[in-house]
């Protein structure tokens, strides 16, 4: 539940509550929000590194709602995802089942995080990812560090891709990185 400034809960239908964005100048007392939480739930501020940042936009705030396991809403079961078969984007092929990355048919010797980072970039070609987005997506919410961690891993990936294919991971100045097959 990330948005700019603050959040409040409003009744959309009787018995159902939804989040809504509020005006930047509107202030909401978080004690009012507690009335909408299920019994035993806890509202915590989301860590700043877990929230996306958008260039030219104000910083976002967000809250995590922790609900006891025995009170989780029963949602219809989502179909199990099919195992990720080999996905090729340009010269790089990612095999998510065997956890192998191939460049022109040759396997790369990657660490766990290098593989995760490359697989994420290849899965979203031409999309620019900020360093914070990559830290949140690849390293996860619990990671303590900064964007330099991403820079170091990208440099290692470029070396392992070789001189011929290092340009496939492009730097977008003052923003982040993108994969261009």
Write a brief structural summary.
The protein is built from four helices and twelve strands, in the order βββαββββββαβααββ. It is of the alpha+beta class and 181 residues long.
Describe this structure in words.
With 181 residues, the protein is of the alpha+beta class. It is built from four helices and twelve strands, in the order βββαββββββαβααββ. Helix 2 crosses helix 3, helix 2 packs across helix 4 and helix 3 crosses helix 4. The longest helix is centred in the last third of the chain and has 15 residues. The chain is elongated, with a radius of gyration of 20 Å. The N terminus is likely disordered.
Alpha-beta content class? alpha+beta
Shape: elongated
- Please report the distance between the alpha carbons of the first and last residues: 33 Å
Query: Major beta sheet, specifics?
Result: 4 strands, antiparallel
Order of helices and strands: EEEHEEEEEEHEHHEE
Low-confidence stretches: 1-18
Strand order of the largest sheet: 6-7-8-9
Number of strands: 12
Portion of residues within helices: 10-25%
Radius of gyration: 20 Å
Number of helices: 4
Strand content: 25-35%
